[in-house]
Specification:
- This protein has 140 residues and is an all-alpha fold.
- 44% of the residues lie in helices and 0% in strands.
- It contains four helices and no strands.
- The chain is elongated and about 105 Å long.
Length: 140
């Protein structure tokens, strides 16, 4: 199965490169107008009719081969997956989850503040703040 997958992948890459080359060789629609008035197309490699028929048919065949290889690669990638694999997101969830959410919070220690030593006589009492913000509004 692995060898067949490699062969299909190589055929698809070669087909893509050949299609790129053939598409770049083709003339645009406006290029045929100059050939109608004696542009010298009769002495070309593909004859007096030009290369439109040969290149366009070859490009169509290569496009069909490329499309078939793409479908085969999609089929092989789907067939290689086990039946119970599920979603990628389901496999990302850890197998064990702690029972308590508080166990997941890391404990941090706050270092003691270091500053000038104060005595209780020099420290002013701090007024207690009310619990709600409504009591802090000035009254009239």
């Amino acid at each position: 199965m692995n060898a067949l997958l490699t062969i299909v992948l190589v055929v698809q890459i070669l087909t893509a490169l050949a299609m790129i080359g053939l598409i770049l060789l083709q003339h645009g629609k406006g290029a045929d107008m100059g050939a109608a008035f004696g542009g010298g197309a009769s002495g070309s490699l593909f004859g007096a009719t030009g290369s439109a028929n040969f290149l366009s048919r070859t490009t169509a065949v290569l496009a069909a081969v490329f499309f078939a290889c793409t479908l085969l690669l999609a089929y092989f990638s789907h067939a290689a997956r086990p039946a119970g694999a599920g979603s990628v997101l389901e496999s990302a969830v850890p197998a064990t989850v702690p029972a308590s959410g508080a166990a997941q919070i890391p404990s941090t220690t706050v270092p003691a503040q270091q500053g000038p030593a104060t005595t209780p006589a020099t420290t002013a009492p701090v007024p207690a703040t009310p619990a709600s913000g409504a009591a802090q509004n000035p009254t009239k």
